[in-house]
Amino acid sequence: MSQSKHRIFNDYRDLFWSLIPLVLAAVVLAGAASQCTVATNGPTQGQVPFFDADTALKSDARSLPFPIRNPQLPPDWVSNSGSRDTIATAGGGDVSTVGYLTPQGTYMRYSQSDATEEALSRHVLGSRYPTGTQDVAGQKWVVYTEPTEETGWIADLGGVRILITGAGNEAAFDTLAQAITVAEPLAK
């Protein structure tokens, strides 16, 4: 007769020792399938996507019913995204958005829309409310802030509302706001 333990004499140590070969086999199989990697240098920055903001904004100027501006930003601001959207709620309208990476590596974007300030702010900023104003290049910008959310600035430039938001500091907001304020609308 064999000398194995009766089931009631097994404990967690026996379970632990029986699982070790299974865990090792799983690690070997995952490594062989290239599902596991070990990084020793930490995260690295990926390639910044290219977005042709000039072409996109010219197209928006031809097809959207409101004035579109293409701000001339410093060359170290890199456009990396863009989109078009529609706000379907009361006071809504079309929205053209372009995003940039600043020289500090923060993301900033601006949206142009024929929607009302309230509809645009609710659509993009959610529950944030106005907390003050900023004057940039003679243009008043309404500032929307909330402690745990990105800041937003909105200005009415006659027939179009511009909303700036992002993770940049106040200098990044000023740079983008000034470039938008002095930009002339693109030809239709």
Describe this structure in words.
This protein has a domain at 53-182: MucB/RseB, C-terminal domain (Phosphorylase Kinase, domain 1, 2-Layer Sandwich). Helices cover 29% and strands 27% of the residues. By secondary structure, it is α+β, with helices and mostly antiparallel strands. The longest helix has 21 residues, at 12-32. The radius of gyration is 27 Å and the shape is elongated. The model has no long low-confidence stretch (mean pLDDT 88). A seven-stranded antiparallel sheet has the order 1-2-3-7-6-5-4, sandwiched between helices. It comes from Nocardia halotolerans. InterPro entries: DUF4245 (IPR025339). This is DUF4245 domain-containing protein.
List the helices and strands and how they pair.
Elements: H1 12-32, H2 53-63, E1 78-86, E2 94-101, E3 107-113, H3 117-125, E4 129-136, E5 139-145, E6 151-156, E7 161-166, H4 170-182
Antiparallel strand pairs: 1-2, 2-3, 3-7, 4-5, 5-6, 6-7
Pfam families: DUF4245
InterPro entries: DUF4245 (IPR025339)
Protein name: DUF4245 domain-containing protein
**CATH architecture call of the domain at 53-182:** 2-Layer Sandwich
Q: What is the gyration radius calculated from CA atoms?
A: 27 Å
Average pLDDT confidence is: 88
Could you name the CATH topology of the domain at 53-182? Phosphorylase Kinase, domain 1
Q: Note poorly predicted spans.
A: none
Lateral strand order in the biggest sheet: 1-2-3-7-6-5-4
Give me the CATH superfamily of the domain at 53-182.
MucB/RseB, C-terminal domain
In this structure, how is the largest beta sheet organized? 7 strands, antiparallel
Portion of residues within helices = 25-40%
Beta-strand fraction estimate: 25-35%
Number of helices: 4
Elements, N to C (H/E): HHEEEHEEEEH
End-to-end separation in angstroms reads: 95 Å
Structural class given helices, strands, pairing? alpha+beta
Q: In oligomeric terms, what are we looking at?
A: single chain
What's the β-strand tally? 7
CATH class of the domain at 53-182: Alpha Beta
> What is the 3D shape?
elongated
